[in-house]
């Protein structure tokens, strides 16, 4: 057992030690009136900075939700995303539901349930990746303008205008929340 634990302990010690010696860099922002925007993580050279604690808050109108899509996404991958990660909360309160911690290289797609989204990015002091760029937009919950949609019951999901051809230049997010199943599907 001991020889197997040693490398993990050494890596954890190195990471903790390096995190403690580098000063924290401010980053983040609040978007309260914008209907769309970009969120980027600070970078040094081609990678994001070490020891980041970034917080972004996005607020849409009372009858709106927030759609998030990554156009660039490379965050150091770790088991359970414990080293570097972006955490998404659906709402601004401490009690707001955490959607999860995200890392790795799989593009990020998210459609909120509430009209507020809280993003928290953390990087440790050991190894950085290229980082991310997220675009957000606020969309009406009734789907009057956008093709984004929330599915809460058994329903066939169709593309805009189905059975006719869908229009060009569409990006549609479908948030499926039926029982314990939760996922986001994207049509590009
Ligand atoms: Ca890292």
UniProtKB/TrEMBL annotation:
It comes from the Eukaryota. Residues 27-139 form the CUB domain. It holds the Pfam family CUB. Disulfide bonds join 27-54. Keywords: Disulfide bond, Repeat, Signal. Residues 1-19 form the signal peptide. This is CUB domain-containing protein.
């Amino acid at each position: 057992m001991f020889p197997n634990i040693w490398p993990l302990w050494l890596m954890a010690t190195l990471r903790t030690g390096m995190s403690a010696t580098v000063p924290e860099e401010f980053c983040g922002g609040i978007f309260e009136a914008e209907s769309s925007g970009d969120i980027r993580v600070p970078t040094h050279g081609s990678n994001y900075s070490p020891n980041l604690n970034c917080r972004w808050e996005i607020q849409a109108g009372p009858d709106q939700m927030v759609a998030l899509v990554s156009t660039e996404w490379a965050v150091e991958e770790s088991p359970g995303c414990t080293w570097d990660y972006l955490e998404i909360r659906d709402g601004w309160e401490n009690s707001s539901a955490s959607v999860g911690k995200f890392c790795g290289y799989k593009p990020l797609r998210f459609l909120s349930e509430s009209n507020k989204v809280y993003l928290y990015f953390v990087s440790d002091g050991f190894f950085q990746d290229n980082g991310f760029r997220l675009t957000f937009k606020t969309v009406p919950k009734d789907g009057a303008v956008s093709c984004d949609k929330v599915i809460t019951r058994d329903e066939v999901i169709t593309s805009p205008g189905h059975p006719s051809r869908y229009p060009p230049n569409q990006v549609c997010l479908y948030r499926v929340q039926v029982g314990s199943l939760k996922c986001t599907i994207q049509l590009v």
